[in-house]
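Researcher: Let's do a round of design. I'm pasting the structure tokens now; please hold your answer until I've finished.
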């Protein structure tokens, strides 16, 4: 996939995952100015959702490390529509049991693997923003941006300094 640039106009969505209790100042800075923030789970600290909400409205799902009453209040998956984007969020992509096309989703966001990636398969864009928390498995520290362009979902992975 060729590199994409985040547009300067239109709805801009910040996508973050696997913070594992570490919300880096660099992540907050990178997300400044977005219209929405989506957190794909493994938050680790409920206060981080409040910090993100000071930037933009947040939709978050529960990851496998999220425990306690605050985490139980979060759904395991979420479906939302932002502009022309029909988004499904699930922490672990391997747990998805349905076909995005059948469900009408054109974006599937997941985390869990800590591996950032953007993949287009027919009717859906699969986005894993990678992990923005503690470094694991020698993988980069990243988040992502998502937007609609010419009626199609577009995304870019944004590296953060470690």
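Researcher: That's everything. Go ahead.
Model: Designed sequence:
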């Amino acid at each position: 996939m060729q590199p994409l640039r985040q547009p300067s106009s239109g709805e801009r969505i910040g996508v973050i995952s696997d913070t594992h209790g570490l919300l880096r100042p660099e992540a907050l800075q990178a997300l400044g100015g977005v219209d929405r923030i989506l957190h794909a789970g493994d938050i680790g600290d409920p206060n981080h959702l409040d910090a993100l909400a000071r930037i933009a409205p947040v939709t978050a799902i529960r990851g496998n490390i999220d425990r306690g009453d605050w985490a139980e209040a979060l759904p395991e998956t979420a479906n939302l529509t932002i502009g022309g984007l029909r988004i499904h969020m699930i922490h672990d992509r391997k747990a998805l049991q349905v076909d995005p096309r059948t469900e009408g989703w054109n974006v599937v966001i997941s985390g869990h693997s800590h591996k950032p990636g953007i993949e287009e398969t027919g009717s859906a864009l699969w986005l894993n923003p990678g992990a923005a928390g503690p470094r694991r498995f020698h993988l980069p520290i990243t988040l992502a941006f998502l937007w609609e362009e010419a009626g199609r979902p577009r995304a870019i992975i944004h590296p953060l300094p470690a």
